[in-house]
Amino acid sequence: MENNALTLLRSARALASALLVALAPWGALAQAGDCAKADAAVDRVTTWPALAQAVKDYRACDKGPTAELFTEALLRVVVGGWPKIAEAEPVFSADSSFRDWALRRLRSPDLPKDEAESVRDLAKGSCPKGREKLCADLAAAAEMSRASASPDLIVIPPATPKGNPK
Questions:
Q1: Does pTM surpass 0.90?
Q2: Alpha-carbon distance 116 to 120, whole Å?
Q3: Where are the alpha helices (H) located in the chain, listed in sequence order?
C-alpha cells in the first residue's frame, strides 16, 4: 500500500511539473494580451482614482512603450488636472504603493525636463490651501527629476572648515 501511494505521489508531481512547463508560454501570451489592454486603459486615464486603478490592474505591464503611456497619464492627471490636485490625497492615503509609484515616476531622470518644471512650478506656485504636504512632495519629486537629469542644477554648499580658521 505504501509503495502504491509513493508511486502515485511521484506520478502526480511529474504531471504537475509537465503542466507547468507546458503552460508557461500560455502565461506569457496572456500577459501580452493584458498589456495590449493596458495601453488602451492607460491612454484613457484622466483622474487620480482611474490612474491608481490602471496602475493596480496593469503594473506588470509598466515597461517599454506602456511605461511611457503611464508617464503620460500621470502628467495628464498632475499638470492637466491641476485644479483637481486635491483628489490625489485620498488616493495616496488609501494606497501607499500607488503614492510611491507616482512620486518615483516624477523623480525619474527620464521625465521630460519641461514636464518636471511644470509640476514643480504648479506645486510651488499654485498649491491649494491645506494641501501643502502634497504639493511639497510633488515639488520635491520634480526637483529630483530635474537634478538627476541635469547634475549641474544640484547645489552643493561649500564645506565649512572644522575648528577656528584664522
A1: no
A2: 6
A3: 2-43, 48-58, 64-75, 88-94, 96-107, 113-125, 132-149
